[in-house]
Amino acid sequence: MPDPRPAARVTAITHALTPLRSYLELWDGLRLQPEVCDFVFGNPQEMPLPGFVDAIRRHAEPKDKDWFAYKRSESEAREVVAKSLREWRGLPFDPEDVALTPGAFGALEVAFRTLLDAGDEVLFSLPPWFLYEPMLLSVDAVPVKVRVRADDNDLDLDAIGSAIGPRTRAVIVNTPNNPTGRIYPPATLRALAELLTDASDRWGRPIWLISDEPYARLVFSDAQFHSPSAYYPYTLISYSYGKVLLTPGERIGWLALSPSIPDRESLRGAIEVSQIAAGWLFPNAVLQYALGDLERLSIDLPGLQAKRDRLAGDLSAVGYDLRVPDGTFYLWVRSPDPDDVAFCRRLADRGVLVLPGSICEAPGFFRISLTGSNDMIDRALPTFRRAAPEH
Ligand SMILES: Cc1ncc(COP(=O)(O)O)c(C=O)c1O
After folding, report:
1. DSSP characters for 46-107?
2. Residue 389 has what pLDDT?
3. Residue 170 and residue 158: Cα distance in Å, rounded?
4. 174, β-bridge pairs
5. pTM of the entire predicted model
6. Fewer beta carbons below 10 Å: N end or C end of the chain?
C-alpha cells in the first residue's frame, strides 16, 4: 500500500507553521518547570476573574430541556453584542449583523469562508499575528504581505496600494496590533479607506476590510481606539472575549457586519451557512447564555498598564529599543542579538520565556506578553538586564 498522505494544502500549512511549532516544543518542555517566567503567549498566569467563574456557574444550571441542545447564534447573545456595539461605536448594529463564534479565530475562519474563493488574494501587514497565513492557506486563499513602517509601526499605505491588484479580495487590519501594540490613527484609516474605495472601483468589486479587533478593549489610558469600520463601509469585525477576560480556553467571540455595508441581508445568511458547513462554528451554549454577564467584565487594565510602564521603562533604561504599546498586552522589543531565536533560547536557559520575532516574520525582534504576573516580572528583570544591549 502507498504511504498515507494528507491533502497537498497541508504541506504548505505545515511549512507556514514550522517556526511556531518548533518553538512550541521548547516552550512545552520548559513552561511548567518551577520558577519559570512565562511571557510567551497571551495565557493567564494567575487565577481567573471571580466574576467569570460565577457567570459560568450560574448559566451551567439548565433551565429547560433545550439548555444544551444545538445552538446557533442565540438571539439574546446577539442582542447583547449589538447593543454594546451601538453604544461603543455609534453605528446602528442590528442583532442580525452579529454572528457568535468560537473566539476571533472562529470569526476569522467564518469571514474567510464566506468571502473568499480559491486563489483570492488577501493582504495583511508584517509583523502579523502568526496564524493569518496558515488560516488563509487552509481556505486556498493567497496571502500577500507588506511590512509596516519601520519608524512607527503604522500601516505602510504606499506598500498596501502597490500590493493591491485584480485578485485582491480582502485586507486584514489588526488594531490594536499584535505584536506591535500599535493602534492605527484616524488619518491612516481614512487614507486606507480612500485607497480601498479607489481600488474597488478600479477592479469592479468591493475589497473587504476584515478588521481583527480582539484587543479593542485592551487600550491604555494614554491612547484611544479607532475602528476601521468607522471609515470604510465594506468592513467585518472579528472580536474575542478570550483577551479582555484572559480566558482564551473558553472560546467565545463574534463576527459583526458593519451596518454601513449596503444590501447585507444575503451576507447575514451566508455567514450562518458558512458556520454550519465549517463544522458548527458556534460557541458552546453556556458561554452564549453567560455573555450578558461577561460583557461587563474586564481584567485589571490599570494593573496591566503598570506592568507595561515598569517593563518598558526598565528595558529602555538599559538600552533595549522599543515603542511603548498603545494597547494589547504585548511589548515588542528589538533583540540585542540580530539572531532573535538564539537570544530567546539564551533567555530560556535562564528561565525567562519570550516569543522570538521570527515567528511573526520579524527576525531581530522579540515579544513579551504582559500577562506574566508581577512576581514573574520581578524575577525576570535581572535576566533581561544581564542580556541588555548596554550590559
Ligand atoms: C490578532 C489576533 N487575532 C485573533 C486572535 C485569536 O483570538 P482567540 O484565540 O481569542 O480567538 C488572536 C489571538 O492571539 C490575535 O492575537
Report:
1. SPPPHHHHHHHHHHHS--STTTTS--SS-HHHHHHHHHHHHHHH-S---GGGEEEESHHHHH
2. 86
3. 17
4. 212
5. 0.98
6. N
∠ CA 217-74-71, nearest 5°, is: 115
Instruction: Calculate how far, in angstroms, residue 175's C-alpha sits from the geometric centre of ligand 1.
Output: 11
Q: How far is CA 149 from CA 101, 144, 178, 230, in A?
A: 32, 16, 15, 23
Report the C-alpha gap between 384 and 391 in whole angstroms: 10
Beta bridge mates, 259 = none
DSSP letter assigned to residue 230: G
Strand partners, 208: 170
Ligand 1 atom showing the smallest separation from residue 243 Cα? 10
- For the chain, where are the alpha helices, taking DSSP H only? 8-30, 50-60, 75-89, 103-115, 132-138, 157-163, 186-203, 241-244, 265-277, 285-294, 301-317, 340-349, 374-386
Kindly report the protein residue whose alpha carbon is nearest to atom 2 of ligand 1.
129
List pLDDT tens digits, range 238-288.
999 999 999 999 999 999 999 999 999 999 999 999 999 999 999 999 999
Helix (H) or strand (E) holding 239: strand 235-240
Residue from 112, 212, 218 to probe ligand 1 pocket by mutation (most atoms less than 8 Å from CB): 212
Is omega for the bond preceding 176 within 30 degrees of 0, making it cis?
Answer: yes
> 306 alpha carbon to ligand 1 midpoint, in Å?
23
CA distances from 321 to 175, 176, 218, 332, 365 (A): 22, 20, 23, 9, 10
Handedness of CA 177, 180, 181, 186 (dihedral sign): negative
- Model confidence at 1, pLDDT cuts 50, 70, 90, reads confident
Report all structural domains of the chain as residue ranges with CATH numbers, in order of start.
8-49+299-386 (3.90.1150.10), 61-294 (3.40.640.10)
For residue 181, what is its C-alpha cell?
501594540
**In the structure, which protein residues have their CB atom closer than 6 angstroms to any atom of ligand 1?**
42, 103-105, 129, 174, 178, 212, 214, 240, 242-243, 248, 253
Sign of CA dihedral 378, 380, 386, 391: negative
Q: How far is the CA of 325 from the centre of ligand 1 (A)?
A: 17
Whole-number Å distance, alpha carbon 177 to ligand 1 midpoint, is 10
| CB 207, CB 181: distance < 8 Å | no
User: What's the full length of the chain, in residues?
Assistant: 391
In this prediction, residue 2 carries a pLDDT of 86
